[in-house]
Amino acid sequence: MKKAKRFWLFILLAVVIYSVVQLLIATGVFGSYYSNTLILMAINIILAVSLHLVIGITGQFSIGHAGFLAVGAYISAIITMKLELPFIVGIIAAGIIATLAGLVVGIPTLRLRGDYLAIATLGFAEIIRIIFLNIDYVGGAAGMQVSHYTTWTYAFVCLVITILVISNFTNSRHGRACISIRENEVASDAMGINTTFYKVAAFAIGAFFAGVAGALYAHNFYIIQPVNFGFLKSFDILIFVVLGGLGSLSGSVIAAILLTIVSTYLQGFPETRMIIYSLVLILVMLYRPQGLMGTREITDLLRFKKFRKGVAQHVK
User: Fold this and answer.
1) Sites in the chain below the pLDDT cut of 50
2) Separation between Cα atoms, residue 161 and residue 174, nearest integer Å
3) Which residues are within 8 A (CB) of 286 and not within 5 positions of it... i.e. 6 or more apart?
4) DSSP state letters, 155-179
5) How far apart are the C-alpha atoms of 33 and 123, rounded to whole Å?
6) H-helix or E-strand containing 263?
7) In angstroms, how far is the first alpha carbon of the chain from the final one?
């Protein structure tokens, strides 16, 4: 009953947010600059939440998320620009092909742990980038011209679906199995949990939504180039998860929103942006290593406030 109530409250909140923003865009209060910032914010949240499932919930240190973003971007661009199919087909195809890429990478590499897994996923992302760099069909190093199909509606619907799927997965028995792997993989294996299956499943789900984000990302600009999907892009996505708190979906969303705003205002100073990102990571590691939210969610904080209020009234 509580889960159903929480679900409908989330849907109601999503409808209200979408309606208000869409009204502001339609009436011209939000111009192209602000609407583009909101779309970019939604894309970054999708990327952060999808990586949160891999790192924060399952505990697998992956820094190759930009590779799945690149797969989704180029596959969707081929679908819409070369095959001239609808954008929605491109989004779905981007997610499916990115999932297959996640399986191809995940099955052999997720037997590794820690730094070794990070190096393997980073290598995968670089291989994907180099492949697209050398394929003339998608423009090679010069890039590929893409029509602008991404709208606030597409971005917000994909964002809501991403949060719902990953939140429900996390709160299911499958999600609890992933959390047990994060806490102690040896103990989880000893208790009969198929650790390889759940690690690959989390990796594949994360790759799917990264591919969807790639489709939105590609069609939000007029050109995509392999240089857009380098190591620094994976680093950007990783910062969202670490700053928000490993294990907190709410934290990933909040961090993605904050850093998108900061990044937008520092677009003319890319070197300064990376310096600020580095300083933020250093400060977080020194003074709040658990991140902004730790492993807690916003709903946990609300319940704690209600509990304190109830205790105070009882004492009176």
Assistant:
1) 307, 311-312, 314
2) 18
3) none
4) HHHHHHHHHHHHHHHHHSHHHHHHH
5) 35
6) helix 249-265
7) 31
